[in-house]
């Protein structure tokens, strides 16, 4: 279990230690938009690099791409985003607050279950699942809210507008002399940039099915209900891989990637008891999916999705073939046949992953009578991996400490610190998640030519020769296990 009892704990730490700030905070902030500070940008980059290395360096049949944020508007028509990337919204006339109609009903169902009214909860759940089959989706959701007198959570009022669809894509003008017809969208996902480059990759790279294409990058969604810190934002970063396979082999590939992706989360130090799979029921599948499962993490706000693994069938390539008029099938020379590949998708939110790492690493503990807040982050991900301290501000100690820093800085993220007591310096770097601290003292320069290495997780210390510092850190990085 995580030691975090509230998301507010992480929000407070993230700001005080320079991980994550509210965007434009001096002007009052911008809702659901965040900036990464000095420690946050390093942590985020390290997570991204760990994902990229696992995908592209450890798989010889996966290549990378970096598609533009702006894409031809027809891309989003083909993908279904223009016509179907909507959330059903309803406004409380009293408070002027806007809610997702389906989420409002889901919360009402949960409350009924808590109150012991299971039969009524099941009845409304059936109506929710079949929404859109009686009238339209918006009308069916509105009827459920009105007939059950579901009140606004914030004001307690029962004074609703009609339910209407709200498209989540940001639209902007394109070009200096643009008109409404020249409008383009900020991409709501990175996957389509891979699909529209599928043919280019086939034509220019020595790849054959099965193969994958990986990409990281920003995506934008005009979320109306955006909350819970960086868990749900309007500007966020995705890490996606689309794996192209022969139809008929997709089920096996889907199962394989489920296992691989769960293993990756464990490999970056996330504790197994805080991870689980959650399969999508058939009525909850996206329009393009044959199967879908979420990797969920036990956040302070409950079990929530961090990554999705989907069998997207041949939907995307078939749609782009239809809308572009370009052939996007694949010729299998070995078996002398053509087909449009199926796609297995792995899609993880980098911001959610960063939040997961912070939550899972957070501890408030007492060791040998000392109380501290510490982030037990995987050493490979730590924004500062090594702290180097002279015991006091004396020239001989400072000079050797700087020399050790210079030797380590090519391979590790190193922070030199000579301000405050050793105890305070340890506490600062504990909260930053620094796994190793090296202290140069008077014995180092006068007698034994050894330094003290202090380990973050158990606060143990040992004396090691100066010329063994790099080796000791390398060994500590390799032997690390989550605790």
Care to give the gist of this entry?
The chain is of the alpha+beta class and 483 residues long. 36% of the residues lie in helices and 25% in strands. The strands form 7 sheets. The chain has a 7-stranded mixed sheet, with helices on both faces. A 5-stranded mixed sheet has the order 20-19-21-22-23, with helices on both faces. The chain has a 3-stranded antiparallel sheet with strand order 5-4-6.
CATH superfamily heading of the largest domain: Bira Bifunctional Protein, Domain 2
Q: Strands of the largest sheet, in order across it?
A: 3-9-10-16-13-12-11
The figure for the number of domains is: 3
Task: Give me the count of strands.
Answer: 23
Overall spatial form? globular
Amino-to-carboxy terminus distance: 11 Å
Q: What attributes characterize this protein structure?
A:
483 residues; alpha+beta; BirA Bifunctional Protein, domain 2; Herpes Virus-1; Rossmann fold; seven-stranded mixed beta sheet; 16 helices; globular
Can you tell me about this structure?
With 483 residues, the protein is an alpha+beta fold. The chain has 3 domains: 7-83 and 170-359, BirA Bifunctional Protein, domain 2 (2-Layer Sandwich), CATH 3.30.930.10; 86-166, Herpes Virus-1, CATH 3.30.40; 384-479, Rossmann fold. The protein contains 16 helices and 23 strands. The termini are close together. The mean pLDDT is 91.
């Amino acid at each position: 279990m995580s030691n975090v009892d509230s998301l507010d704990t992480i929000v407070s730490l993230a700001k005080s230690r320079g991980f994550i700030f509210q965007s434009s905070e001096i002007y009052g902030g911008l809702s659901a938009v965040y900036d990464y500070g000095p420690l946050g940008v390093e942590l985020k980059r390290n997570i991204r690099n760990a994902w990229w290395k696992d995908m592209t360096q450890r798989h010889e049949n996966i290549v990378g791409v970096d598609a533009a944020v702006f894409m031809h508007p027809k891309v989003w028509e083909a993908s279904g985003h223009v016509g179907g990337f909507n959330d059903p919204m309803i406004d409380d006339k009293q408070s002027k607050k806007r809610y997702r109609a389906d989420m409002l009903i889901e919360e009402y169902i949960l409350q009924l279950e808590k109150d012991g009214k299971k039969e009524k909860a099941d009845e409304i759940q059936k109506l929710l699942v079949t929404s859109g089959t009686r009238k339209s989706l918006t009308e069916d959701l509105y009827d459920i809210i009105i007939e059950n007198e579901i009140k606004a959570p914030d004001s307690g009022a029962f004074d609703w507008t009609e339910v209407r669809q709200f498209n989540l894509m940001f639209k902007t003008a394109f070009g200096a002399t643009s008109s409404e017809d020249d409008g383009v969208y900020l991409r709501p996902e990175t996957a389509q940039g891979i699909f529209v480059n599928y043919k280019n990759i086939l034509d220019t790279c020595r790849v054959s099915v099965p193969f994958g294409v990986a990409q990281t990058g920003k995506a934008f969604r005009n979320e109306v209900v955006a909350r819970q810190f960086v868990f749900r934002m309007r500007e966020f970063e995705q890490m996606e891989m689309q794996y192209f396979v022969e139809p008929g082999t997709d089920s096996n590939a889907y199962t394989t990637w489920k296992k691989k992706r769960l293993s990756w989360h464990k490999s970056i130090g996330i504790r197994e008891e805080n991870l689980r799979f959650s399969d999508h029921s058939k009525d909850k599948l996206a329009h393009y999916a044959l199967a879908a499962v979420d990797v969920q993490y036990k956040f302070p706000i409950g079990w929530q999705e961090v990554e999705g693994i989907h069998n997207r069938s041949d939907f995307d390539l078939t749609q782009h073939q239809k809308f572009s008029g370009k052939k996007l099938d694949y010729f299998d020379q070995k078996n002398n046949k053509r087909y449009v590949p199926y796609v297995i998708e792995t899609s993880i939110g980098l911001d959610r992953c960063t939040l997961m790492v912070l939550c899972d690493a957070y501890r408030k503990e007492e060791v040998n009578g000392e109380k501290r807040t510490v982030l037990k982050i995987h050493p490979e991900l730590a924004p500062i991996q090594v702290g180097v301290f002279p015991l006091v501000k004396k020239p001989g100690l400072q000079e050797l400490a700087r020399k050790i820093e210079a030797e380590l800085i090519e391979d590790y993220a190193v922070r030199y610190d000579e301000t405050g007591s050793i105890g305070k310096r340890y506490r600062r770097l504990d909260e930053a998640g620094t796994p190793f601290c090296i202290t140069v003292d008077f014995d180092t320069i006068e007698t034994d030519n050894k330094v003290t290495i202090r380990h973050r997780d158990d606060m143990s210390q040992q004396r090691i020769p100066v010329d063994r510092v790099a080796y000791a850190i390398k060994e500590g990085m390799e032997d690390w296990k989550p605790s």
